[in-house]
């Protein structure tokens, strides 16, 4: 059989084309930069797991992760109760209820107060020690003013004495010790203490700080509506007026030396409450313009905002559980006609916002 050969000119074209393809591929390969896939940072934040409503229960504090101290909406029942959230059982503890109750850090004592009277309740024994705040009707508690536990054994409360304003320190044994502030001409609306530093907000909306035993004070910020000191005493969150009908939230260090750039803004913004670990801040906000109205939890590091409810309860405190995985807001006033009280419990869970 005669062998057929390809024409010479065809072979030349074939080899040329092959070389072109090979050099072309090599050129393209040299022009490609291979980039490793980007690594995704997993930003830890929070998610809402569930919400429970307890009707007829006005919670006052957490005794543990599964127990609440509360009062009822019954006019004939004026005792404090303990509610077990696991089995739903309740029991009275023999201590008379008042308008407010604040648990000590170790949850063994409670400071009870209304507009006229105050007492220290011992939850381990069920006994109560009435407090003598006034002196011959010349001094007494400040209505609607907010005190706080400075440590396990001491509670600090705003008072008025004759024509001067200040605070008193109350120990668990019922001893009341007045303390004179550097300036005494303005009512104190809220006070908190950590270590030797005393923080207080006066009626002129000035947030101040003084060191225990000092006759000097430092103005931290003006036009302040509310403030909250972190549990470790290193950071200060405060809501302040930045414009007409505008309240902004800022977080600074406890000396007020860092910039106070607003984080969020609203028409109303109150009830600031730090989580026990100081990593999150709960707040109530009313802001139709920004679409942020209700109860929120903010990651203090990332600024991530988790909405818990669209109901902005600006009058009730937000109270964290010991672990920081739950918080409650109580609503209602049993002293008004046909009042119905309730408590909303928000259960949080850790989650990853990139998932």
Describe the secondary-structure layout.
Blueprint: H1 8-30, E1 44-55, E2 58-62, E3 67-71, E4 79-84, E5 90-96, E6 100-103, E7 109-113, E8 118-122, E9 127-130, E10 139-141, E11 148-149, E12 154-161, E13 164-171, E14 176-179, E15 188-194, E16 197-202, E17 207-211, E18 217-221, E19 224-229, E20 235-243, E21 246-253, E22 264-266, E23 268-274, E24 280-286, E25 294-299, E26 305-309, E27 318-320, E28 326-331, E29 342-352
Antiparallel strand pairs: 1-29, 2-3, 3-4, 4-5, 6-7, 7-8, 8-9, 10-12, 11-12, 12-13, 13-14, 15-16, 16-17, 17-18, 19-20, 20-21, 21-22, 23-24, 24-25, 25-26, 27-28, 28-29
Mean pLDDT over the full residue set: 81
Calculate the terminal CA-CA distance, rounded to whole Å: 71 Å
Q: Mind telling me the CATH superfamily name of one domain?
A: TolB, C-terminal domain
Structural class call reads mainly beta
- Provide the low-confidence segments as ranges: 1-44
What global shape is seen? globular
Organism: Brevibacillus brevis (Bacillus brevis)
Pfam families: PD40
Protein name: WD40 repeat domain-containing protein
InterPro entries: 6-blade_b-propeller_TolB-like, WD40
